[in-house]
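User: Working on a comparison across species. This one is 23S rRNA (Uracil(1939)-C(5))-methyltransferase RlmD from Vagococcus intermedius. Can you predict its structure so I can line it up against the others?
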Amino acid sequence: MTNLPVTKNETLTVDIIDLSHEGLGVAKVDGYPLFIENTLPGEQAEVLVLKVGKKFGFAKVVTLVTESKDRVSDVNETLIRTGIAPLHHMTYEAQLAFKEQQVKNVFQRIAKMPEVKIHPILGMENPLAYRNKAQVPVRKVEGQLSTGFFRKNSHDLVPLENYYIQDEKIDEAIIVVRDVLEKYGVKAYIEAENNGNLRHIIVRRGHYSKQMMIVLVTRTPKLFNYEKMVQEIHQQLPEVVSIVQNINPDATNVILGKTNKTLFGQNYITDELLGKEYRISAQSFYQVNSVQAETLYRKAIEFAGLRSSDTVIDAYCGIGTIGLSLADKVKHVYGLEINPDAISDAKINAKMNGLSNVTFEIGKAEYIMPTWLEKGVQADVLIVDPPRKGLAESFIKTAVEMAPKKVIYVSCNPASLARDCQLFAESGYEVRQVQPVDMFPQTPHVEAVVELVKVK
Ligand SMILES: C[S@@+](CC[C@H](N)C(=O)[O-])C[C@H]1O[C@@H](n2cnc3c(N)ncnc32)[C@H](O)[C@@H]1O
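Assistant: Here's the predicted structure for 23S rRNA (Uracil(1939)-C(5))-methyltransferase RlmD from Vagococcus intermedius:
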């Protein structure tokens, strides 16, 4: 590559002028962007250029020359390097400001709505140890069964015992499970050969119930002496009510396989959210930050402005949590979701909470919505909470045809949210307000809930 202002392995001093949406510091050398981990706007750093591409490059800090006022002391480089907590070098106040700005930027640049009302982000009182779920890879490191996190952009395991953003009881449980399995000679997965056995340990812990589920993801169904292992795990971790083996034989990055076998207790845990009880099984999506999930749902329900005569659709409903939280305020709730396990949880959750005005259906949102429209389902409020890629255009088209008075859009990706809001805006909906919520402190991710109102 010719005519680039920097070369690989060159050392230079740069000013950090911005933060990328992934939380990397950005410097410009003659207009050429360099992305640098663990740097903040306003800082000056001596950096070593690691990678040079046509349009941008990457560098790492050799010496920090000047420090930002937004930097915290005691930065744990491992948490940044593994991507567990890429923003933990920033004060929480600065993290919140950064995320709020991300949401403002996308509404300005992508949705082309510079005037839209964006409320100050809702952060956490204690933004650490908030995750109710952990999934950690297992590999053999220096002869030992080891748990930790992959170094960013690699599958090299960095052994770790304190994950900083996970419920501390979950961190403890990972160590107990790892050590019991090591004692019984369970072999770690060898990715390069798709050999060995134990690939991941997943732990979920109910925020209110404190019930714990352990999932052992293995390559093969064989797990010798599992009866003894699960008894020992339960002895050391009395909160465990469920131990499930998930078998994933494929050479893939996807963590879970299709087959589950319950090794101990039941195949789910229960927990509470906004005063209702939920059953959560191994393969079902459940918000990982219970405290902020309640904040988010409260906002979504407030924005919906529900009346007792309303019919509500909860699209991408998971185990039914949003729809069931509001079901006693409305006439009927329809929920749809692609994952059959989540829908079977949702149906049980409705019964458990004594709610009979709900209907759940399995399938892709973009296929189910047109069938409901055809059957004459008429939603007053449509709630959507899609995965990062956002809504399919065909889904938006059907939603517009159904003509709900309001659309409440819950999103974990501001870019797809802004894109979809623009499509709704082109079809007669107006964005009334946007509420960013910090569901993932110490990381660059930001959640938002939007109220869209039909105006034409
Ligand atoms: C962000 S989660 C939200 C779940 C739920 N609303 C909650 O708060 O727990 C997105 C959900 O969409 C589901 N999903 C993904 N693609 C889908 C599709 N095309 N149609 C329907 N559901 C889908 C996932 O299985 C997941 O449960």
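For your comparison, note: DSSP finds ten helices and 22 strands in the chain.

User: Helpful, thanks.
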